[in-house]
Amino acid sequence: MTMMNDANALEALLADLPAQDVQEVAPPPAAPTRDLPKLMRKIPVTLTLEVGEARVSLQDLLAIGADSVIELNTLAGEPLTLKANGTTIGRAEVVVSGENYGLKVIEIAGLDLDSLAP
Known about the structure:
It is found in: Cell membrane. It is a peripheral membrane protein. It holds the Pfam family FliMN_C. Keywords: Cell membrane, Cell projection, Chemotaxis, Cilium, Flagellar rotation, Flagellum, Membrane. This protein is α+β, with helices and mostly antiparallel strands. The protein has one domain (26-116): SpoA-like (Surface presentation of antigens (SPOA), Roll). 21% of the residues lie in helices and 25% in strands. The protein has helices at residues 2-16, 36-40, 58-62, and strands at 47-50, 80-84, 87-97, 100-108. Strands 1-2-3-4 form a four-stranded antiparallel β-sheet, with no helix packed on it. The protein is elongated. The two termini are 60 Å apart.
């Protein structure tokens, strides 16, 4: 019976409270839609030109010195691998640009950021 008395007492207290104007709260504005491909175009990436690679034994590695020559798996004059953040995206060759080395793109994979749109 005490639970019933407590419930009745609570209802009586609530009934005694003055009625307040209840205002509807508008839902928060929707987040602006973002153009993912446009945003991704602004992300910086690191381009690297990979000359080649060589597989050597640990014994051969220990024998490498300042005048050592290590043959790579790339033929001289062959286009080199162009990478963006470590992912192969094409082929290029080394050129001189002012006082720096540069790269001349020979072929490039189809990079289509627009295809990433939801």
